[in-house]
Design brief:
The protein has 386 residues and is of the alpha+beta class. The chain has one domain (37-346). It is built from eleven helices and eleven strands. The strands form three sheets. Strands 2-3-4-6-5 form a five-stranded antiparallel sheet, sandwiched between helices. Strand 5 and strand 6 form a beta hairpin. Helix 6 packs antiparallel against helix 7 (270-281). The longest helix has 24 residues, at 190-213. The N and C termini lie far apart (48 Å). Residues 169-343 form the CHK kinase-like domain. Pfam families: EcKL. Residues 377-386 have a biased composition (Basic residues). Residues 345-386 are annotated as: Disordered. InterPro entries: CHK_kinase-like (IPR015897), EcKL (IPR004119), Kinase-like_dom_sf (IPR011009).
Length: 386
């Protein structure tokens, strides 16, 4: 439930890089270390043709990249904490037959870098957000993905990650495969929500499986003091003054919207509802309450996306199968440890179904993750002669 100033007001043309949520992508989740010290003419760190050649050929050594085109990765004002760019790499690849022939090759990559302005980086906590995202791609996701066997994958994982470092993250651009956002003004309908819940169930099941099967590793990855661990980046007590002006405006907007939208048949409870809402959003207690909520740890604490709402989910309709969905990478920087909850739909969808809806649609993803982990472990200890 993150609504901090890092999010901005993204429109439908926003970044569509993402995290696979339902359908297996079949792509490697390996990340690359890129020694990127070059700057372009305006002093900004950018991917060059040589950089992209290095990144692509690490995963695909039979590819030759010959040209590179760049464009902005999101609309003006869409991203405050980072700068996004898209590049389209073109070249050729050896034919599958193993002969001397070549096939045309094209790869779309989206990458983000820290803002060049130090004031902007400090204002939006860019370094901390980047650090969290890199920790996920380099350490947390590989640990979760190792639990899955080829035949038992409960979560499709991450698109191909080309680089993950303190000031640059590069990955596959999913826009070219037809993924797009749902209408954020309408929210998600039931069928779409079922897919999202199933995806989240698989993601959280991997966390629980890691917690049970490798508790020391889980504790390390959830430890903000460890160089491989994730940490809360928004609702931290040391952010209270920094965040105050934002949530003061947001709270006033929320109070006004609830007051305007409260139906007439609820007039007899209007005073009660508004009093409770105003008490919760009181700026002297709201931030501390949220900090306590996101920091609480229990038996079912998992790795959470941190900002799972409609704009951070991608859909692609397939005529021969269920709709595919992917989760955008853009807010993986807000990943946190905590209870597995999110804000992805509205009351008219949730209320008639209650918590049973979540149980019904998630299925036994945790059990499937545990079976996949056992199968993966057997595969790793199999004798060499098998």
């Amino acid at each position: 439930m993150s609504a901090g100033p890092c999010r901005g007001d993204r429109e439908d043309n926003a970044d569509v890089s993402g995290l696979s949520s339902v359908v297996q992508t079949g792509y490697s989740s390996r990340y690359s270390f890129l020694r990127l010290d070059r700057m372009n003419g305006d002093g900004k760190v950018r991917l060059t043709l040589d950089d992209v050649r290095e990144l692509v050929t690490r995963d695909e050594p039979d590819v030759e990249i010959t040209s590179l085109e760049e464009e902005p990765g999101s609309g003006r004002g869409d991203n405050y904490t980072s700068m996004l760019y898209r590049v389209r790499a073109k070249g050729r690849k050896h034919s599958l037959e193993g002969g001397e022939g070549w096939l045309d090759y094209e790869r779309a990559i989206i990458y983000k870098i820290l803002p060049e302005s130090k004031k902007r980086r400090e204002a939006f906590k860019s370094e901390l957000l980047f650090r969290n995202e890199v920790a996920f791609y380099k350490h947390v996701w590989p640990a979760l993905n190792r639990l899955q066997s080829a035949g038992r994958r409960v979560f499709g994982g991450v698109p191909r990650i080309y680089a993950a470092r303190a000031d640059l993250i590069a990955m596959e651009d999913l826009r070219v495969r037809g993924f797009k956002m749902a209408d954020r003004r309408k929210g998600l309908e039931v069928e779409s929500l079922k897919l999202v819940l199933k995806a989240l169930a698989g993601f959280h099941a991997l966390s629980l499986t890691l917690r049970e099967s490798r508790p020391e590793e889980f504790v390390k990855l959830m430890n903000p003091a460890h160089d491989q661990g994730i940490q809360e980046v928004l609702f931290r007590r040391d952010n209270e003054d920094w965040y105050r002006q934002y949530y003061r405006v947001a709270a006033n907007n929320a109070i006004r919207m609830v007051s305007d939208a409260l139906p007439s048949h609820m007039d007899f409870r209007r005073e009660e509802v508004m009093t409770k809402l105003q008490a919760f959003l009181n700026e002297d207690v709201f931030f501390r309450t949220m900090s306590e909520l996101v920091s609480a740890q229990g038996a079912l604490s998992v790795v959470c996306h941190g900002d799972c709402w409609t704009n951070n989910i991608l859909f692609r309709d397939e005529p021969s199968s269920d709709a595919e969905i992917e989760r955008r990478d853009a807010e993986m920087r807000t990943i946190r440890g905590g209870a597995g909850v999110g804000h992805i739909t509205d009351q008219h969808v949730r209320q008639p179904r209650g918590t049973g809806f979540v149980r019904e649609e998630c299925g036994d993803q945790r059990g499937e993750a545990q079976r996949g982990s056992a199968a993966a472990s057997r595969r790793r200890v199999r004798p060499a002669h098998d």
